[in-house]
Design brief:
alpha/beta; six-stranded mixed sheet; 35% helix
Length: 404
């Protein structure tokens, strides 16, 4: 890889984020002196500390060492953040996470960015697995925990770099990879992109910045793959297209399916309770993710009664796709819907989870985990399956059921 022109001492505001932690670790492995802060202490921040990275809980100007020459921040960090304000006051250069990732991407001769509204994480995992199986040692940055690399990042020893390219707020427009794989361009992030055309134009700009582009819509899906769900079969075939373009061993890449294991929270079989309840977890939070996920589960567990515990993610998405949510759970026998997780938003949309329940057959609003468990514990669990679903920590409720 090419030399990266970055200062030695770099501080990360929000270092515990999935992408931020990966970038921080890669730069730490390259010899940079990394520090960071985050609102909460998590397993991720603990792991960063174990690598020798100094991580502070909470945000304070005192967290920033005097030797710091660059401060990296995410889109979630506001200008009112104390560390952000300190950087401004002291004229310490500030850089967005996406811009920094773009610099790292440009240092690799064979850089591959996986984009698309749905399937980025899974396809990144698939391609990383193929490259590793073939014998290439790629650097990997992925948006979930991948068991085979022990986390969400790995510094390889080759000129191959595989990463997700997130479309939110135009983040991927800072990336200029050798290969851009664009899986799909469904409308989403309606708080930022006001029309479907705006989002599609962003994908086109991203595509124009790449040397080569693979459009998922043009990829043939092999039906005989031993993968759960048609969407995952499509993702696998898209990853194989990258292998073709790279001129690597395609047959060996195909063979790697024998040992592939999906990342966490992607149709993840969590276990079975002592009462025989199967628990699955999935990250799906858009109607066009929920539908294929439930279809795949229904096809595999034909005789099971399927329950869903879903937490909507952001008011804007819930409001924009309310009609689509009303039919997204048709493959489930019953759906429990928790309050909307606000993330970065205020409820200027006057939208609530009850709005989904009101137009969705066989659904129940549950105000909390306790509310759900009170209802759930009265149900007959025989021959049943529960899938926890959403881009939140809703999976913890399933974990709790497994531990009792």
């Amino acid at each position: 890889m090419k030399k990266i022109n970055l200062p030695k001492n770099i501080h990360f505001i929000g270092i515990g984020g999935v992408s931020m932690s990966g970038i921080a670790t890669i730069l730490n492995d390259m010899g940079h002196l990394i520090t960071g802060s985050d609102r909460d202490e998590t397993e991720t921040t603990k792991k960063l500390k174990s690598l020798g990275i100094e991580v502070k809980k909470g945000h304070s100007s005192e967290n920033i060492p005097k030797e710091t020459k660059l401060i990296v921040y995410t889109a979630a960090i506001k200008e009112t953040n104390e560390e952000f304000k300190y950087a401004k006051d002291k004229n310490i250069p500030l850089m967005k996470r996406a811009e920094l990732l773009g610099i790292i991407i440009s240092a690799f001769e064979n850089s591959i960015c996986i984009a698309g509204t749905h399937g980025k994480t899974t396809t990144t995992a698939m391609l990383a697995h193929m490259l590793t199986y073939i014998g290439v040692s790629p650097t990997i940055s992925i948006g979930a925990h991948l068991e085979s690399i022990g986390g969400n990042f790995l510094l390889g020893n080759s000129n191959y770099f595989v990463t997700e390219a997130c479309e939110y707020a135009g983040s991927f427009l800072s990336f200029f990879p050798k290969i851009a794989l664009i899986l799909n361009t469904d409308y989403d992030h309606t708080d930022y992109y006001k029309t479907p055309e705006e989002l599609q134009n962003a994908f086109l700009k991203f595509a124009n910045g790449a040397k080569q582009v693979i459009w998922g819509s043009n990829v043939y899906i092999s039906k005989d793959l031993e993968l759960l769900g048609e969407h995952n079969k499509h993702n696998w075939c898209c990853a194989l297209e990258v292998i073709k373009i790279l001129g690597l061993d395609l047959e060996l890449a195909k063979e790697s399916i024998k040992t592939y294991k999906a990342p966490k929270r992607r149709l993840e079989l969590k276990g079975e309770t002592k009462d025989g309840l199967i628990i699955i977890d999935d990250y799906a939070h858009h109607p066009n993710e929920i539908i294929p996920t439930l279809k795949a589960i229904k096809e595999k567990y034909v005789d099971k009664k399927i329950y869903v515990l879903y937490q909507p993610h952001t008011y804007s998405r819930t409001s924009s796709f309310l009609k689509e949510f009303s039919t997204a759970f048709e493959k489930a026998d019953h759906t429990f819907i928790l309050p909307i997780y606000a993330a970065r938003e205020e409820n200027i949309y006057n939208i609530y989870s009850e709005n989904i329940v009101n137009i969705t057959p066989n659904s129940t609003y549950v105000s909390s985990e306790e509310d759900f468990l009170e209802i759930w514990n009265k149900k007959v669990l025989e021959n049943s399956l529960l899938i926890t679903m959403g881009a939140t920590d809703v999976y913890k409720i399933g974990d709790g059921l497994l531990s009792t």
